[in-house]
Design brief:
The complex is a heterodimer of chains A (247) and B (249). Chain A has 247 residues and is mainly alpha-helical. Chain A has a single domain, classed as MetI-like fold (Orthogonal Bundle). Chain A contains nine helices and no strands. In chain B, 37% of the residues lie in helices and 24% in strands. In chain B, helix 5 packs parallel to helix 6. The chains are: A mainly alpha (247), B alpha/beta (249). Chains A and B meet through helix 5, helix 6 and helix 9 of A and helix 2, strand 6 and helix 3 of B. Bound molecules: adenosine-5'-diphosphate. Chain A: It holds the Pfam family BPD_transp_1.
């Protein structure tokens, strides 16, 4: 290797560790992780409410509310996330209703990102939670009913704990998916880590290195999450192992 | 407790045909009859897990007309006064044995946790499972699980315990440990309503026998007479002859 090339390589390596990676990580913690965590928590709350509404057996006026939630889930599951981001960030400012909304809805990029990612996650996760609730045998409802528990208490104490345990693997997958999907936030001017790597690549003409670096950081984040998922799954099935050990 | 003129259909299949029955307090009533005759449906109606289309239900001063919408408060009264034991145990898998027994008293009756636990331990001792309090249901044998289910039901101090084929899923040795508990309860004058295919056990435990066939009551009365060989109902004779009476003798 020529002296020049060696110098060049050590310069790049030096930049990677002192400049590029620190910038990517900073953006990762400031935007990627915060976007993902906040959106996931909000998404889970939306998902739980949606799932409970959709499995409810109430009739009458409640059927309209059920229809609205069904429409919401359909809408977010059948359109691309990128298009949803564009509608919320670039589109809503043009939603002008004279008298009510004369100036449209202008959202800060981060807010638009949180709203879209939360609603998107909520739509998918609601189906996961709904399926998990329905996977709990009907007999569990009956056993709870026979000791006098009402529907709400049965849900809270008997059904949801069992359903959430079943939901851990699919919900973890959703979360990992969400972390990767936050890269789409670059398109609505959020300077998350993919955007940062793009900006650096535009300056140093090293797209291969920059995009590989950011890919590595995504992989690192997701690996940590996979490990957490494994830990959660173990913790939630701990009881069986413990009592076997006692026996 | 009694039901009068109860009708229940699933789809267009009439499962209960204008049935009237009473269940004397302090006694053991056993429902027998061929599979699919409607025994479980009768039992589940007593706990309001099935809702017949018409008929009446009376328990102490509570009166329910099945053709009307049942008030939540009445449902709760019935559920407190009756306890159900299922063929498939239906314990709560995410709770320990002790928590399974205390759940109702704490959450529904509003008992203090410590009091509920003390009583639960007594009940578990009574069904022979004092040492299993901290185990999870999936580590229990079927016979143990069913005895926990009986303790869970007893913890609510129900007037009636309803048992839906409580030993049908069990091997004969495990069946015995459950039947012994039930015989003990019957001796203590706990009101029981039992659906079973075990006629030997029925003969031993029943004060009253109800023979159900095709959604109708063919016999409703004294257990001794039912098993007497001179029973003049040919259907009942055929049924008795078709079942083995040997298993508990
Ligand atoms: N949930 C249900 N839906 C439809 N049919 C049912 C249901 N439960 C019971 N049946 C029918 O009702 C009849 C009586 O059932 P059941 O009361 O379980 O009888 P038994 O306890 O005497 O075996 C059977 O023909 C059964 O198939």
């Amino acid at each position: 290797m020529s002296c020049f090339a060696r110098k060049e390589l050590s310069k790049i390596l030096h930049s990677i560790f002192t400049d590029y990676l620190p910038q990517i990580f900073a953006a990762g913690f400031k935007y990627t992780i915060t976007l993902a965590i906040i959106s996931f928590i909000l998404g889970l709350i939306i998902a739980l409410v949606t799932a409970l509404v959709r499995i409810s057996d109430k009739g009458g006026g409640f059927l309209i509310i059920k229809a609205i939630f069904r429409f919401y889930v359909w809408l977010f599951r059948s359109t691309p996330l990128l298009v949803q981001l564009f509608i919320v960030y670039f589109g809503l400012p043009y939603l002008k209703i004279p008298g009510l909304l004369p100036n449209g809805i202008k959202l800060a990029p981060f807010t638009a990102g949180i709203i879209t990612f939360s609603l998107n996650t909520g739509a998918y996760a609601s189906e996961t939670i709904r399926a998990a609730i329905q996977s709990v045998p009907r007999e569990q409802w009956e056993a709870a009913a026979s000791i006098g528990m009402n529907r709400g208490k049965t849900l809270r104490r008997i059904i949801l704990p069992q359903a959430l345990k079943v939901s851990i693997p699919p919900l973890s997958n959703s979360f990992i998916g969400l972390v990767k999907d936050t890269s789409l936030a670059a398109s609505i001017t959020i300077v998350e880590m993919f955007e940062v790597s793009q900006q650096i690549a535009a300056e140093n003409y090293q797209p291969l290195i920059m995009y590989s670096l950011v890919a590595l950081v995504y992989a690192l984040f997701c690996s940590v999450l996979s490990w957490l998922q494994g830990w959660l799954e173990k913790a939630s099935s701990r009881h069986s192992k413990e009592s076997e050990a006692e026996a | 407790m009694k039901i009068t003129k109860v009708n229940k259909t699933f789809g267009n299949h009439q499962v209960l045909k204008n049935i009237s029955l009473d269940f004397p307090a302090g006694k053991t009533t056993v429902l027998v009859g061929p599979s699919g005759s409607g025994k479980s449906t009768i039992l589940r109606s007593l706990d309001l897990l099935e809702r017949p289309e018409s008929g009446n239900f009376d328990l102490d001063e509570l009166h329910i007309d099945f053709s009307q919408k049942i008030k939540d408060a009445d449902i709760l009264t019935v559920r407190k006064k009756t306890g159900m034991v299922f063929q498939s145990y239906n314990l709560f898998p995410h709770f320990t044995v002790l928590q399974n027994v205390t759940e109702g008293p704490v959450q529904v009756l509003g008992k203090k946790k410590a009091d509920a636990e003390a009583e639960a331990k007594q009940l578990l001792a009574k069904v022979g499972l004092a040492d299993k309090a901290d185990f999870y249901p999936e580590t229990l044998s079927g016979g143990q699980a069913q005895r926990v289910a009986i303790a869970r039901s007893l913890a609510m101090h129900p007037e009636y315990i309803l048992l839906d084929e409580p030993t049908s899923a069990l091997d004969p040795e495990l069946e015995m440990e459950v039947l012994k508990v039930l015989l003990e309860l019957a001796k203590e004058k706990q009101s029981l309503v039992i659906v079973t295919h075990n006629l030997a056990f029925a003969r031993r435990v029943a004060d009253k026998i109800v023979f159900v066939e095709n959604g109708e009551i063919l016999y409703d009365g004294d257990a001794g007479k039912f098993f007497a060989q001179d029973n003049d109902n040919q259907r009942i004779q055929d049924f008795l002859n078709s079942m083995s009476l040997a298993s508990l003798d």
